[in-house]
Specification:
ASHA1/2-like_C; SRPBCC family protein; Alpha-D-Glucose-1,6-Bisphosphate, Chain A, domain 4; 3 helices; 7-stranded antiparallel β-sheet; globular; 154 residues
Length: 154
């Protein structure tokens, strides 16, 4: 299985970044690549708490990983360290073996120069997901996280 790793500086303190990673309303705005919309179905932000999110392509002709133009995934929060890290275990809701299986997603927060370096690590990427596309999605989402926090400090 493949691992991707992306970093992004956010001009906000680690505590604010941590809060935005665990806020379902914020997640709906930043954890979505361009050309898609997000819907948070459930989101229990505590260790062991479960979540379910769907991302739907704005263009219905683009096929998603789950059904139609939608990528749905669910998981749980495996570890939460305030101001430092969030670890999630997630998997796509699909019957396609090329997209199946648990993935571990880590948000590692490092205080740097008056802000936070966010390191996103995506482990066990299934073979049906191109690493370059995964990295692009991460870069877009972390850019939106930075824009959200830098425009409206938490």
């Amino acid at each position: 299985m493949t691992t991707t790793r992306v970093t992004r500086f956010v001009a906000a303190p680690p505590e604010a970044v941590y809060a935005a990673i665990l806020d379902p309303e914020a997640v709906q705005h930043w954890m979505v690549p361009d050309g898609m919309t997000s819907e948070v179905h459930r989101f229990d932000a505590r260790e062991g708490g479960e979540f379910e999110i769907s991302l739907t392509h704005d263009n219905p002709a683009i096929l998603g990983k789950t059904e139609g133009a939608t990528d749905s995934f669910a998981g749980h929060f495996a570890e939460l360290v305030p101001g430092s890290s969030v670890v999630q275990v997630v998997q796509f809701e699909t019957d396609d073996p090329a997209l199946a299986g648990p993935m571990t997603i880590r948000y590692l927060l490092h205080e740097r120069d008056g802000g936070t370096e966010v390191e996103g690590v995506h482990e066990n990427l299934p073979p049906g997901v191109a690493p370059a596309e995964n990295e692009l999605g991460w870069r877009i989402s972390l850019g939106k996280l930075a824009a959200l926090l830098e425009a409206d400090p938490w």
